[in-house]
Amino acid sequence: MKVAIMGYGVVGSGVAEVIGKNAGVIARKSGVSLELSHILDIREFPGDPFAAYLTKNVDDILNDDETGVVVETMGGLEPAFRFVSACLEKGKHVVTSNKELVAKKGDVLLALAEQHNVNFLFEASVGGGIPIIRPLFRCLAANRIFEIAGILNGTTNFILTKMIMEDMDFADALKLAQQKGYAEKDPTADVEGIDACRKICILASLAFGSHVYPDGVPTKGISEITLDDVKAAALAGFVIKLIARAKQLENGKLALCVSPTLVKKDSMLAGVSGVFNACLVRGDAVGDVLLYGQGAGKLATASAVVGDVIDCAVHDRERIRLGWEKAADGVLEDADKVPTALFARIKNADEAALAAALPGATLLSGENGETLVLTGEAPAGELNAALAAFDPVTVLPVVDY
Is the C-alpha dihedral spanning 320, 326, 328, 333 positive or negative? Predict the structure, then answer.
């Protein structure tokens, strides 16, 4: 099977490297032989070991009948969407690591793949090298999945780990992440939760069968989290993590959100530190399953991409039953109606009034005269309205994982 790569950046070059150095291992384990045919990029790479495969014209890939699988590692929505659509229409399997493409256009591309009897696979779009997609649709296929939650962004987890473990403020932790190459020069997609939102949308679409668009998911990042928030959470027995979660409610609707969230210090997710990711899946038969590992990196992500390429080669004449339906109207529950528990920091609180306004809430003494509030579970809109009357410094959700 000949393989073309569109986008020769960190992941694309990793894919070429893995195919080149592990060809024998791949052939022995899968029974298929992978060969590079083209690498599409507008840049020059003098002296690169794969320079002979470079082209600047996507038509060289589209018109090559021997190229059976195309790897898209360009990133972004355009021209990736246009190029991937054209490849599928030409009867070529497509593998991608592009989370934005899958989250925003996955339903369209999956339908196009089905129409042309080819595969569109995207294991690397969520967990990098951590297998998440394949376990969901294969290993856990016998389960009704009712909740998925996790730490899906290594950059923000690194920053929060530094804040929790080393009392480093957000700005300094972000600067360190950039110095180490964990954060981009423009870190917005990471620190504002956009990256995690795209990933949880992909997982929710797969688990619950209906496309979920990122624009409809309440999303908040960690840029406003302070050391005072971290210390207050610790006093209450929690740590703060950026949690992306998706749950099917009793009424059948879906509740999705991305937010800095309090998790108990002894929970499975609390111990996930540094750039590591973890995804918790709850099924009716299997119970809780935690998938854990380093979610990014050149070769780790390339490993997941090439795994999908091998699947396409092995199943060249058959479709892999992976996908979901078009987005359904009203599939997302109004965020204000979703049952949740909240944590709040309040200065100079009238604790008697607080207790009356939030029956069942736990009140704790914080630093500098603050009152820390842990509410019971109730519709989020009702809790936020009750807390707003006390002018809280911080309000964050609390989960029991």
Answer: positive
Q: Where in the chain is the domain with CATH 3.30.360.10?
A: 135-294
Token look-up 């092995």 returns 314
Record the pTM.
0.93
Residues with active-site annotation: 199
- Residues 395/344, Cβ–Cβ less than 8 Å: yes
Walk along the chain (401 residues) in steps of 10 and give the mean pLDDT of each run.
96 96 93 96 94 97 97 97 98 97 96 95 90 90 94 96 97 95 92 97 95 96 98 98 97 96 95 93 93 84 94 87 86 96 96 95 95 97 97 96 85
| CA trace torsion 210, 213, 214, 216 (10° rounding) | -100
DSSP state, residue 210:
B
Contacts 24+ apart (CB under 8 A), 355-359: 357/386, 357/389, 357/390, 358/383, 358/386, 358/387
Which SS3 state, helix, strand or coil, does residue 345 take? strand
Give the CATH class of 135-294.
alpha beta
Residues of the chain with CATH 3.30.70.120: 336-398
370 pairs with which residues across the strands? 347
Smallest CA-to-CA distance from 384 within 347, 338, 342 is with: 342
Phi first, then psi, for residue 166 (nearest 5°) are -125, 10
Q: How far is residue 374's CA from residue 365's CA, in Å, rounded to a whole number? A: 11
Cα–Cα distance measured from residue 17 to residue 229, given in angstroms and rounded to the nearest whole number: 44
Q: How far apart are CA 342 and CA 374, in angstroms?
A: 6
350 Cβ neighbours under 8 A, 6+ residues apart: 390
Q: Which fold has domain 2-129+298-314?
A: Rossmann fold (3.40.50)
In the chain, residues under CATH classification 3.40.50.720 are 2-129+298-314
Taking the C-alpha atoms of residue 6 and residue 56, their distance in angstroms, rounded to an integer, is 10
